[in-house]
């Protein structure tokens, strides 16, 4: 796999790239108070949630690996203007303004954090999840635990269970190993600690994830990029597209959409497409 493909693969399969993490943290710094900010405590750490009031459904935007709530800063005002709905973004543990949590990354902890945030904000029904890349894994487990809370989802080039065969996990671990080894030489860096936390649990997390099914009752739109995170590795790119197609075929209330010409960062490359499908899902569940 070429170096560029390795960097994109890291983001797609949870391993946090240093460049993305650094940018996300820098963008989140503000000299003035943020009226949307709500600090949520869960299991001994604090999380930054951003809440824009509106009608139902509550649209929750969850960014991919290494990115925080600032990833959605251009889409939030447009989405709120178009729908009038509640819009929620947040920084996962260790990112943006949320506390760092030591130890290997656990999807169950990420789900618990999102549950705590929605509970604190008073969101008890009719949620639409919009989940990019890594956040697709959090969404899958979240929906399984809260099928009556989530009314629908838009999965944006999301990491989905069909991808993670033993063969693909082995390929990804091998491709990522040089960056993981480099991070171990400097564990004092916050970004490197996040990378290592994810790497240390990667194999076990994704072997388990491969066996997880999305609840049939919850509709989902699956938007897959044309270039995928593996631009430069045709075999892995094809496996990514096939995983999205397989997931979409598994139930009649799922729609597969291809973002023509887009990189893995579909919300950046094709924001109008993403907004359109979020609006369609929100209209469906009103």
UniProtKB/TrEMBL annotation:
InterPro entries: AB_hydrolase_1, AB_hydrolase_fold, Carboxylesterase_BioH. Pfam families: Abhydrolase_6. The keyword NADP does not apply. The keyword Hydrolase applies. Keywords: Hydrolase, Signal. Residues 1-26 form the signal peptide. PROSITE patterns: PROKAR_LIPOPROTEIN (PS51257). Coiled coil: none annotated. Residues 59-276 form the AB hydrolase-1 domain. GO terms for molecular function: hydrolase activity. SUPFAM superfamilies: alpha/beta-Hydrolases. This is Alpha/beta hydrolase.
């Amino acid at each position: 796999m070429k170096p560029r493909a390795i960097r994109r693969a890291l983001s797609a399969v949870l391993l946090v790239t240093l460049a993305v993490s650094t940018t996300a943290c820098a963008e989140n710094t503000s000299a003035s108070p943020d009226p949307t900010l709500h600090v949520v405590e869960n299991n001994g750490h604090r999380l930054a949630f951003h809440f824009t009031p509106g009608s139902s459904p509550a649209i929750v935007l969850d960014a991919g690996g290494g990115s925080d709530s600032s990833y959605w800063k251009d889409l939030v005002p447009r989405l709120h203007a178009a729908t009038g709905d509640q819009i929620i973004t947040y920084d996962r543990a260790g990112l943006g303004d949320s506390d760092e949590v030591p130890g290997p990354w656990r999807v169950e902890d990420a789900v618990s954090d999102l549950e705590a945030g929605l509970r604190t904000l008073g969101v008890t029904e009719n949620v639409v999840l919009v989940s990019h890349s890594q956040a697709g894994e959090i969404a899958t487990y979240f929906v399984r635990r809260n099928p009556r809370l989530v009314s629908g989802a838009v999965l944006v080039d999301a990491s989905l269970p069909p991808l993670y065969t033993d063969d693909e996990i082995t390929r990804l671990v091998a491709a990522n190993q040089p960056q993981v080894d480099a991070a171990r030489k400097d564990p004092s860096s916050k970004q490197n600690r996040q990378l290592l936390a994810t790497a240390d649990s990667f194999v076990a997390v994704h072997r388990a994830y491969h066996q997880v099914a999305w609840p049939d009752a919850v509709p989902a739109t699956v938007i897959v990029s044309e270039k995928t995170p593996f631009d430069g590795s045709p075999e892995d790119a094809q496996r990514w597209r096939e995983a999205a197609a397989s997931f979409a075929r598994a139930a009649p209330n799922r729609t597969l959409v291809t973002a023509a010409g887009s990189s893995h960062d579909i919300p950046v490359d094709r924001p109008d497409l993403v907004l359109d499908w979020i609006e369609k899902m929100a209209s469906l569940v009103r």
